[in-house]
Amino acid sequence: MLADIEQIGRNPRTGGYRRDAWSSADMELREWFTHQAAKRGLTSHEDRNGNLWAWWGDPSVQGPGLVTGSHLDSVREGGAFDGPLGVASAFEAIDLLRGDGFQPDRPIAVACFTDEEGARFGVPCIGSRLLTGVLDPDRARSLRDEQGHSLDEVLTARGRQPGRLGRDDETLARVGVFVELHVEQGRALEAPVGVASAIWPHGRWRFDFRGTADHAGTTAFEDRDDPMLAYAHAVLAARTQAEAHGVRATFGKVRVEPNNANAIPSLVTAWLDARGPETEKVRALVTELAAGADVTEESWTPEVTFDEVLRTRVACVAGLDGHPAPILPTAAGHDAGILASAGVPTAMLFVRNPTGVSHAPGEFAEPRDCVSGVIALAAVLADLTGGGS
Ligand SMILES: [Zn+2]
């Protein structure tokens, strides 16, 4: 299934993917999702926040169901597995259950959450945040991409109705349990399949360092107000302070104005991603770095601890050779975290990543581990929908 979509949004030079939300690549992937649903006789539909759902059974008649899935968008120059592995595995797990003649006692759905990475509009998990009401629809509509297009304009151009964005209780009420399968994004998982215990609290902050543009040659050092220096200090401080606090901090995106090689900049805008096991330490780091910059919090996701009873049960079912699957925390954000925070019983399965590389073209999972992931997911779906084959 991943081979079907391996060319979509791929940079042939680097092998990296660019699948921004609502780009033509994303539209193609959404179509692929709908096609996969139709091929299996699942009822697919797009909710008013742009998330896709493919139902086996009817949740409006049979009550809330078990939802599995992930996302299809990518970071810039991302890998092939982050997101699509969870969507493809969800369809495959349903195939496996049906092949066994399994009849679930409640509906099962495959979900694809829109704009999980936030690569285009800066806020991650836009689809699940809107669905659960943690992202204000007015704020969402006014988010702009680098070309200056607002989400409102982009959705309108794609024939959607941005006026309908916002918390969607009707859709949410259909989700009894959510299980997301995802490629592991570090090297912590040694077994083929693992289960998430928690997601570190994490956020993104925009730092605006302001100065005065001037000539790179004729302006004496004592006359300069160069924001690049403040930015450079912040980058180095982020690293040292993060190590001191036991958290992770990264400036991964920067924009310079006016961006001339022979001029002192007037403005350096940089984005800090910071996360760690303890909220206070992440917060303390951001406060320490804020000197000399105007700081705007663009997103914040509190720590998520997955339902303990559910994760223990999932680990038992997803284990191999009679051993429960290992349970581990993750430093990566996921739609599963947003749903868990909204009170939906939620679990996550991870598929081993041999190199730990993620959000980069080298992201990889062995095909046999992906198959183990599908088998584990199918076993979890069967266990949670209680029927027998
Ligand atoms: Zn992901």
Could you name the key traits of this structure?
single chain; 389 residues; alpha/beta; Aminopeptidase; Alpha-Beta Plaits; 2 domains; 9-stranded mixed β-sheet; 12 helices; 15 strands; 32% helix; globular; binds zinc ion; Bact_exopeptidase_dim_dom
* Assigned CATH class of the largest domain: Alpha Beta
Q: Kindly give the count of domains.
A: 2
Estimate the global geometry from the Cα principal axes: globular
Head-to-tail CA distance between termini: 25 Å
Strand content bin: 15-25%
> CATH superfamily membership of the largest domain, which one?
Zn peptidases
CATH topology name of the largest domain: Aminopeptidase
Class per helix and strand makeup:
alpha/beta
Low-confidence stretches: none
Give the count of helical stretches. Answer: 12
Organism: Herbidospora solisilvae
Keywords: Hydrolase, Metal-binding, Zinc
Binding site for Zn(2+) 2: 82, 117, 359
Binding site for Zn(2+) 1: 71, 82, 182
Describe the structure.
By secondary structure, this protein is α/β, with parallel strands linked by helices. The protein folds into 2 domains: 2-200 and 303-385, 3-Layer(aba) Sandwich (Aminopeptidase); 202-300, Alpha-Beta Plaits (2-Layer Sandwich), CATH 3.30.70.360. It is 32% helix and 23% strand. The chain is built from 12 helices and 15 strands. It has helices at residues 24-39, 59-62, 84-99, 126-132, 137-142, 151-157, 169-172, 227-245, 279-289, 308-318, 335-341, 367-384; strands at 43-46, 52-56, 65-71, 108-113, 175-183, 193-199, 202-210, 214-215, 248-257, 263-264, 267-275, 294-301, 304-305, 327-330, 346-351. The strands form 3 sheets. Strands 1, 2, 3, 4, 5, 6, 13, 14 and 15 form a 9-stranded mixed sheet that branches. Helix 3 (84-99) crosses helix 12 and helix 8 (227-245) packs antiparallel against helix 9. The longest helix is centred in the middle third of the chain and has 19 residues, at 227-245. The radius of gyration is 22 Å and the shape is globular. The model has no long low-confidence stretch (mean pLDDT 96). The site of zinc ion has 6 residues, from loops.
